[in-house]
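Key idea: predict the complex, not the pieces.
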Amino acid sequence: MRSPDIGTAALRLFTYAAMAFLFFPIIITLIVSVNPREFILPPSGFTLDWFKAAWTSETFVRAMGVSLILGIVASLVANTLALLAVLAMVRYDFKGKALINLLIMSPLLIPTTIFSLALYVYFVQLGFGGGIPALVIGHAIHVLPFAARILTASMQNFDTSLEEAARNVGAGPVRTMLSITLPVMKTGLISSFVLCFVLSWNDFPISVFLAPPGWTPLPVELFTYIKFQYDAVGAALASSLILISGIAMVVIDRMAGLRRVLRG
Amino acid sequence: MKARNAALLLAPAALALTIFVILPLMWVVRTSFNHTVDGAYMVSAFTFENYTRFLGSGWYLVNTLWFSIRVAILTTAISVLLGYPVALYIAGTRGVQRNVLMTMVLSPLLIGLVTLVYGWIVIFRGGGLLNSLMIALRVYDEPVRYMWDLKGVVILLVYIGMPYIVLSLLDSIERINPSFVEAARNVGASRWRAFWSITFPLTMPGLYAGLVIVFTLNFSAFAVPLMVGATDTQMIGLVIYREALLNNDLPFASSLSVIMIAANATILLGMSFLFGKLILNRLEAKR
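Result:
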């Protein structure tokens, strides 16, 4: 083997500098959120006061609740629709498969700005613009392609003889689904659910167009907050969002591999 | 029986996507021809006034459309310059190092935009980290305005775009058969030469895929200019947002969306033509 030369060393240095660029704002936010002296660096100690302030604020607790419910419902809806569609796509051959695939991936192909505006214009004219259904539908449709992608991969690895065995001993299609198909696909389903949840949990563009008053998800609330106020409570709130995303990343990476899931 | 099963399984998703993606998009096109009365409410009409209002205005063309194109080209180019070496390096790593690097590259994709923006504001604002450091080091005396300025918009768009470039490039680089590069080296090509004549041309498809994603993302961006932009960073996505939500002018916002999609498609078509030529020329030259 060749020993590492100057070229490789330069490449490594460049990569580490780029990583610092990518990670710096995340680290800084985490540090500011536990630093007792507001924004004064280096940190002089450790405090959870900012987190306490963020998590006892009525507005933020409400926004967290909204984001939580929204994420769970949108993810459930998206995964149910995606699971059924993927079953058909992987198991059956039919005409127009490519077209259906394009339709399923379409939310990913349209810029989010256009997608949000289109749904907003549509719902306003249907008479329930800025309502809770609009918000949930927007989030569910937005994450659906991601669910379809993970579940397709998971379904393709599926050994269909397991299902045949179940059918042979007399289980009906629903019973086979519940006791064989879903348990075998567990890892795929969990990582798909978590990914959809975290995408919804962090979404800003769709929520800003579709969220009704009084139903503001956390990222929009954080945006409004830092527009008018600039203090470490904002950092604690941002850190809360980061921590949830971090947990989700670990789960997805363990179960499905982050990279395979996020490919653009 | 089989066909019916497939249709039943597909129906919910296909229906939902048709009703909530395809129809709304068609609706936007229809709405773009409607008329707004006194900038307040919309009446059904068939007029081109929303298009002429934008395309007939030198101000909009220069400060919104052309401005967005320039910002998108600049930020995509910087993302590529930063992302290419990173992808090249990561492709050569293994094990724990690779996992750590991949996680760092992917984390901005899974952490929300507002959260990331918050971190950048801490670093870049008037009395923030960077300004304090630069003033302490006497690089300059007065705080420089990074945020709420074009600089902030560019920095953030590069920041968000870079991970996509790295991902698409990695896909391409990993598909290259290492024996090609090995062979070039064996016949005496320098590393640099082997890179330019083997690796680089073979990464063009990945680079192109990344460019398409990042250009479209940055050209249509509204959240970034909304959060860290200024009055002179009127990107087209931001104008759409403002016209729809603040001015309640849905026809105008809709026509802007149609113009944006058309402009984006035209530019991407031009880019694919350019890329096709580049790759073909390189292959021709090899013969």
